Write a sequence for this structure.
């Protein structure tokens, strides 16, 4: 499949109180907040975009991957058609002509396309890098994303049962991951910084804003990245990360035991199941 390389460009976060959520992310990231319509906002910053809309608390109805160019996008659409994956119209206002979406087994949309606006932004370093969901149908989800052309980087196993899977669409360890859980829901999205000192600076910023760290700092086993997480007003988790592992395309998938240390080499972990 012609997915490689593709990078997370933006996602949509919904809330019954979207304006409050837009203000929260604007303050959190020090980003430009722009109204997109009656019930939608755009958050724009340095290497990050977020669409906020009205909907269920904590929902992420789609995430959007940026392809390299129009040729890759066209070829990829043709390949999906050949394997019988149904493509629909793109739901995002941020991608231009040729963008399209597919629906995963949890009915979340993944959009593929090219951004219409390419504008340099100033601001603190935190590139939108990955999205993670929890799911009650993990094996089905992993097969679906594998069929899309994502490559498995790490699997977490509880005896023979799959508890989590991390998948990549470029050399960064994961652009998407899924955790086994009693119910399907968004889990978190993550901003990759330029190094540990940025994690310090973001931690200091959380202190100034009065936003308590929810988990971490720590170091994940899969991905080997330094991280901490906070919660947005709907309880959706937001991660700041540094030193995420790079993994060449051909490097084989590894396995980890389902235990706290896997998810945090420094200590205790958020176990989704
Ligand atoms: Fe993460």
């Amino acid at each position: 499949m012609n997915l490689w390389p593709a990078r997370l460009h933006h996602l949509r976060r919904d809330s019954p109180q979207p304006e409050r959520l837009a203000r929260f992310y604007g303050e959190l990231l020090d980003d430009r907040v722009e109204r997109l319509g009656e019930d939608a906002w755009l958050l724009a910053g340095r290497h990050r975009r977020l669409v906020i809309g009205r909907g269920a608390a904590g929902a992420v109805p789609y995430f959007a991957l940026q392809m390299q160019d129009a040729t890759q996008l066209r070829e990829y659409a043709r390949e999906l058609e050949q394997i019988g994956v149904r493509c629909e119209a793109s739901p995002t206002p941020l991608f231009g002509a040729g963008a399209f979406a597919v629906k995963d087994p949890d009915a979340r949309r993944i959009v593929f396309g090219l951004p219409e606006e390419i504008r340099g932004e100033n601001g603190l370093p935190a590139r939108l890098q990955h999205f993670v969901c929890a799911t009650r149908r993990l094996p089905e989800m992993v097969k679906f994303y594998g069929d899309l052309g994502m490559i498995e980087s790490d699997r977490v196993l509880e005896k023979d049962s799959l508890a989590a899977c991390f998948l990549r669409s470029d050399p960064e360890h994961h652009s998407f991951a899924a955790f086994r859980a009693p119910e399907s829901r968004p889990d978190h999205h993550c901003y990759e910084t330029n190094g540990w000192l940025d994690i310090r600076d973001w931690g200091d910023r959380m202190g100034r804003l009065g936003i308590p760290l929810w988990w971490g700092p720590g170091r994940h086993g899969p991905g080997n990245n330094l991280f901490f997480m906070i919660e947005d007003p709907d309880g959706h988790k937001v991660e700041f990360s540094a030193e995420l592992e790079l993994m060449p395309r051909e490097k084989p998938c590894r396995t980890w035991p389902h235990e706290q240390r896997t998810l945090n080499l420094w200590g205790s972990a958020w176990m989704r199941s």
About this structure: Residues 130, 132, 188, 190, 239 surround fe (ii) ion (CB under 6 Å). The first strand starts at residue 7 and ends at 15. Helices lie at 18-29, 70-82, 138-147, 196-209, 260-263. The two ends are 32 Å apart (CA to CA).
